[in-house]
Amino acid sequence: MNKGDNLAHHMIQSFAPGEVTPEEAHKLGQEWAEKVLKGKYEYVIATHTDSRCVNNHIMFCATNFVDHHKYISNERTLAQIRRLSDDLCRTHGLSVIETTERSAKSKSGKEYHAAREGRGWKSKLYRLIDDTIPHVKTFDELLQRISAAGYEVSRTKKVLKFRAPGQDKFTRGHDDYTEMRIRERIAGGASRKPQRDDKGVNLVIDIQNSIKAQQNEGYKRWAKVFNLKETSKAVNYLTEHNITDREQLARIVKDAATKFDKTAADLRGIEKRLSDVLLTMKHTENYRRMKPTYDKYLAAKKQRPLLFRT
After folding, report:
1. CA-CA distance, 10 to 63, in Å (whole number)?
2. Element of type H or E holding 25
3. Tell me, what's the pLDDT at 112?
4. Topology (CATH level 3) of domain 8-106+255-294
5. What is the pLDDT of residues 239-267, one digit of tens each?
6. How confident is the model over 111-117, as a mean pLDDT?
7. Can you tell me the distance from the alpha carbon of 41 to that of 33, in angstroms, rounded to the nearest whole number?
8. What are the distances in angstroms from CA 132 to CA 28, 43, 89, 98, 137?
9. Terminus-to-terminus CA distance in the chain, angstroms?
10. Most buried one in 28, 79, 179, 292, CB count within 10 A?
């Protein structure tokens, strides 16, 4: 798509878990869209409820229907969009993400897409560490392999940092890539970053039939703790929802599956509607561009009809 040929813009508005109902979120999204677009741009709004945070997705036509001018998207208008959303949330007593000096420093588009696609310095480093851990027995051996891969290693009492060939600054290890966590992962045989606890209940590990648990005492201890945590979460869920027997649980699962299927069908309908709206917007834009030419053609045909005789 050539520069300036975009047909629509996409805005996303998210709310903290439990702050609003889907209906309230949808109403706030409409109010936000009206404040941003001032009644000049056609838009469609979809409120998603399939994640921890209720969020609105708003697609609006790049060209307004009043004077057919295109919407200007730049840093100033983006800041205005965010400010309007924040003001709206504050008015309704909802939380907002306050911009600090640290968070205000954003990545460039190139840096963002590189990190997202795994091409950034940090992504490459973390992937190398993940791939190396299963093949080493000690932390020092891992550092040797990282160094052999061309990385410069900086190691102090508190901070572990790496720098790849051609990289200007060191990359500091965070979360599962600190020295302590890497040592634990080597001892436990965990080659990949473990799942976060807030993603629901996971299946327990069959320690008795796990070859890794029989061969690695550290992994066996970790698996026991992991199983206890997952079992505890499952029991808490059953208690909180007053589930006392298997039949009741089966009914709840069936109802949840039915609701999921209905929501998925509704989303497919919304996506179809979005597709139709985008197609209409495309034809509308083509009509706007070509109408002056067609008007000139009609005027010329009236002035010199002999040239246009068929």
Report:
1. 13
2. helix 22-37
3. 53
4. Gyrase A; domain 2 (3.30.1360)
5. 888 888 888 888 888 888 888 888 888 88
6. 54
7. 9
8. 48, 49, 46, 39, 10
9. 37
10. 28
Question: Which token pair is 170?
Answer: 């060191």
Q: Is-contact 190 226, C-beta < 8 A?
A: no
CA distance 198 to 200: 6
Domain ranges of the chain: 8-106+255-294, 118-194
What residues does 57 pair with on adjacent strands? 12, 46
Taking the CA atoms of residue 180, residue 184, residue 189 and residue 191 in that order, the dihedral angle to the nearest 10 degrees is -30
Task: Quickly count: other Cβ atoms within 10 Å of residue 29's Cβ.
Answer: 25
pLDDT tens-digit series, residues 65-74: 888 888 888 8
Long-range contacts of the stretch 97-106 (C-beta < 8 A, 24+) = none
Residue 91 is encoded by which pair of tokens? 């008015």
In angstroms, the CA 268 to CA 273 distance is 9
**Mean pLDDT, rounded, for 8-21:** 86
Residue closest to 36 by CA, chosen among 3, 19, 18, 12:
12
pLDDT digits (tens, 9 = 90+) for 149-205: 889 988 877 788 899 888 888 888 877 788 888 888 888 764 444 444 444 555 667
Token pair 């036509």: residue: 61
Query: Is residue 23 within 8 Å of 33, Cβ to Cβ?
Result: no
Q: What does the DSSP assignment read for 214-280?
A: HH-HHHHHHHHHHHHHHHHHHHHHHHHTT--SHHHHHHHHHHHHHHHHHHHHHHHHHHHHHHHHHHH
